[in-house]
Amino acid sequence: MLTLTLAELAAITGGELHGDANASVTMVAPMDKAEVGHVTFLSNPRYAKHLADCKATVVMVKEAQRELCAGNALVVDDPYVAFAKVAQALDITPKPADNIAPSAVIATDVVMGNNVAVGANAVIESGVELGDGVVIGAGCFVGKNAKIGTNTKLWANVSIYHSVVIGTDCLVQSSTVIGADGFGYANEKGEWIKIPQLGTVRIGNRVEIGACTTIDRGALEDTIVEDNVIIDNQIQIAHNVQIGYGTAMAGGTVVAGSTKIGKYCIIGGASVINGHIEIADGVTITGMGMVMRSISEKGMYSSGIPLQTNKEWRKTATRVHRIDEMNKRLKAVEKLFEEQEKES
Length: 344
Fold this sequence. Notes:
There is one protein chain. The protein is an alpha/beta fold. The chain has three domains: 4-89, 3-Layer(aba) Sandwich (Udp-n-acetylmuramoylalanyl-d-glutamate--2,6- Diaminopimelate Ligase, Chain: A, domain 1); 105-301, Hexapeptide repeat proteins (UDP N-Acetylglucosamine Acyltransferase, domain 1), CATH 2.160.10.10; 310-343. The chain contains four helices and 38 strands. A ten-stranded parallel sheet has the order 8-11-14-17-20-25-28-31-34-37, with no helix packed on it. Strand 21 and strand 22 (191-194) form a beta hairpin. It is flat, with a radius of gyration of 27 Å. It starts with a strand and ends with a helix. GO terms for molecular function: N-acyltransferase activity; UDP-3-O-[(3R)-3-hydroxyacyl]-glucosamine N-acyltransferase activity. Keywords: Acyltransferase, Lipid A biosynthesis, Lipid biosynthesis, Lipid metabolism, Repeat, Transferase. Residues 24-88 form the UDP-3-O-[3-hydroxymyristoyl] glucosamine N-acyltransferase non-repeat region domain.
């Protein structure tokens, strides 16, 4: 169990401490469940009324709520960001692997930096380069000539295909596949002819990729994920997609081939993005968004039909099927109205 003093919390968060600098905490807890030895935070002002009764050793708050705290208070610019930093400092999640497991299969020409760890039954093929502090979890596969940067971690059963490049300080969760073939085929008289996928995947620095996500290699050029991107679980990213700096993608999203997503975009869960289009910087797509055309201006975009009762949905569906008929009738009425205006 890790222990931090409140003075250390102030240094980690850059906050201003009001209270006992020598008091200590061991974990972060929600405000309503926090006890002595816990640190909590107030990110939503609606819950400020509970501060007086909070039992936590210290509460991270904005200046406006400091006087409401009955005990120690750590004043920060953004309590939620402070929570993230403190949670990292108190994190006791084990590493995916420690040392080099005897059952790991590592080619003789693999270049390994200092303090590399490889878990049981992992396979690392010829020509691979692993930077300092890289951790490869149990059962992982790293294909020929792949490169993995300093301090990057792969959890168990991740597959990294040949020639894939992953930057520094990345985290890849279990069962993700990076560099599998993109969906490329030609059709000759009903017979599918496979198109070899000759590009690769290039992942930037400080990228996090969730479990069971797939990122396909490029057909001729590379699939690219820039720095500081976060990708949730069970996402499909097709060949030649480019994802810009700082973009976040929620679970279940599907991105078709050769689409370019800009910087600082937020893609809601279960969204579907068409291929060969471009999405501008700073675009937010709400959950279950269906993006069929390029988006050239930043902003928030939505699609899909919110949940209704089945009875309401049936009425809506019936009306949708009648839109063409209704449009023709509306045009006929407009034409009749125009003719009457001309006559008068």
